[in-house]
Amino acid sequence: MAVEPEFRYKQCLIIRNDVKMSCGKRCAQAAHASIGAYNNADKALSKAWISEGQKKVVLKANDERTLHELRVIAERSGISHSLIQDAGMTEIPPGTITALGLGPARSEDLDKITGNLTLL
Predict the structure, then answer these.
(1) How far is CA 18 from CA 5, 30, 65, 94, 99, in A?
(2) Distance between CA 63 and CA 22 in Å, rounded?
(3) CA–CA separation, 72 vs 43, rounded Å?
(4) Taking the CB of residue 83, how many other CB atoms lie within 10 A of it?
(5) Secondary structure of 10-63 in the HEC alphabet?
(6) Mean predicted confidence (pLDDT) in 74-89
(7) 4 by DSSP, 3-state: which?
(8) In this prediction, what percent of the chain has a pLDDT beyond 90?
(9) pLDDT in tens, 12-71
(10) Which helix or strand (DSSP H or E) is residue 105 part of?
(11) How many angstroms separate the CA atoms of 56 and 42, rounded?
(12) Predicted confidence band at 3 (pLDDT cuts at 50, 70, 90)?
């Protein structure tokens, strides 16, 4: 059996579970969150994350308030983040907050913020 690599860095992508979105829409929102958080990240952290394979974990949040609370905690912790607000051109009303991207950052730092969330 192959040994799983140990990832020191990752991104967490958190999707609202209370907004009705198709699977494709959720994937697009997660992609927006990933790119946004990456663009805001420290370049040294980004380089380290890329070099070890760009681990991403997709989680779910029960509501918009949870995304805002997680964003504030990340900001206070110095972790890059990106809160996604949908344009409303397809499935949901304009301005709907759909997702939050965190990192790349050290895995243990993100676990302190997102450890109580479940996988999507």
Answers:
(1) 34, 15, 11, 16, 11
(2) 17
(3) 21
(4) 19
(5) EEEEEEECCCCCCHHHHHHHHHHHHHHHHHCCCHHHHHHHHHCCCCEEEEEECC
(6) 97
(7) coil
(8) 95
(9) 999 999 999 999 999 999 999 999 999 999 999 999 999 999 999 999 999 999 999 999
(10) strand 97-106
(11) 17
(12) confident
Structural domain spans, the chain: 19-119
What is the distance of C-alpha 9 from the center of its chain? 13
Measured in residues, the chain has a length of 120
Report the phi/psi class of residue 67: left, alpha or beta, with left for phi > 0 and alpha for psi in -120 to 50: alpha
Provide the whole-model pTM: 0.94
**Residue type at 73 in one-letter notation:** I
Q: Which of 67, 80, 68 is nearest to 11 (CA)?
A: 80
| Residue 71 and residue 83 in contact, taking contact as beta carbons nearer than 8 Å | yes
CB 38 within 8 A of CB 46: yes
As assigned by CATH, the class of the 19-119 domain is alpha beta
